[in-house]
Amino acid sequence: MGGWEFHGAVPRLGQPRPSTAPATGSSASGLKSDAPTPDTTNTPSSSSAAGQPRCFELVSPMNPYSRRPVPCHLEKTVKKPLARPKNASLNGKMLKSAAGSSVPRGLDVTLTCRAKNEEICNKARSSFEMASAIIGNVLVLNEPLTVNATIYPFCAENSDLCSKEFQLLGGASPARTMLRKDDDGFYRIYPQSLVKQLNHTQHPSYGSFDISAEFNADGNFWFQEDGAIKKGQSDFLFVVVHEMIHGLGFTTSWADYINKIPSAITPNPLSPDADPLDTDTFRFDGFFENAFDRHLVQVPSMVPLSNLTRVLNRFNGGIGTVYKDQIEFINKLTQSPEYEMAARAFNLSTTRGSLGFLPSDSVSGNDVVLMETNLKSGFVQGSSISHVEYQTYSNTPDFLMRYLQDPGTLLQQDIEGSGNYAGGAIGPKLIRCLQTLGYRINKNPQRIAMYQIQSESGADSMTALRGYASWHASLAAVAAVTLAALL
Ligand SMILES: [Zn+2]
Hints:
The chain is an alpha+beta fold. It has one domain (55-482). 23% of the residues lie in helices and 17% in strands. The protein has eleven helices and 21 strands. The protein has a four-stranded antiparallel beta sheet. Strand 1 and strand 2 form a beta hairpin. The chain is globular, with a radius of gyration of 22 Å. Zinc ion (ZN) binds at residues 5, 242, 246, 387, 403. This is Sequence orphan. Residues 1-53 are annotated as: Disordered. It comes from Thamnocephalis sphaerospora.
């Protein structure tokens, strides 16, 4: 049952430590700028040549923290024409909105399919076409996002992804990320897909792909060609669109990089590697948030979470301090009064309704989008903060980025059940989040007829929906069982 995504554990600095209480004795005045301070914004290694950008490439789509630095340099931006509406061909049939006009492509998917059953490969291709339309309908992209997708049997090929308790369905992450300086002085980690939309005259070298994704060939997926969805099946399209939004940068860098059992979280300290035997000196360049994290606020105060980063960056002499190794770095950090900010962030991440994403056009605190800080198991790397709060956004048009998907439910059904929002899978609050990140938004998305493309008559889709409705009544009773945790 259940799992359709897996974000994996963060690589820990130094050797794993038992969970410890944070250092005590500090004043709780972390948020006050009560002392004259040196620069508390981070800096990408001043020892490197000035203007030399830093880029990272994803190692495994199933673990967004598995990133290695790759050489990159500044390149001139070549202007490309806007993606124009173009009829996407799907098995010879046109992909059209319900209004009858075609929508721009949002994704260019390069699919490597190692499923034994060739049929799954073809059905997945259809779903990627639809996901492409759903994203291209809502975002105005300079060019379609490039996606490197692989479908393979997880258990047969990767024992790490094979669990007896739950079945992993897939995962995706930005393929390349790069450091970019924001106008508040912080360098943050940007996904390549977002950098491409910012229209700078120069940009760090791009990798071949914007988003990297893997899906389980043995997953209990439902595809639109399959007729009525069965209990326990996950709508492949839902999974793809959800994962693509993570790939666009809807993801936090706040995690516990130190303790085995999470008890304190920080943004990414960007260690050159996570090898416990590494005896190299470690220069602290600051904690690096994701572009997403700039917009996180504490609720209800609306104080930016970045204020905690600012305090954390001051610990033990602050940015530029060189440690003899990562162990020393960890010891000094955990003994510092500033470490209390990491404990505070941890508490926020495990208390319902205490963290939100504040869209840039917000007029009041009511506009805040509540992030997932209400998981039974406390802080869950990859699930906490990187999703919207489950209960608040279930049965609303912003259901997509919850950490759970209801097996046996069609994406179309979620859309119709929450008011049939014109943007479809991508709800109004999520759109404001994407706009705040820096994506351009199509103000007039079309209504896409999602399940009418696979058959001449559209009859299959209606059958599927009717089939869904007939057993949905009994779903409520088994919901607690059906909603297995997704990790
Ligand atoms: Zn997710």
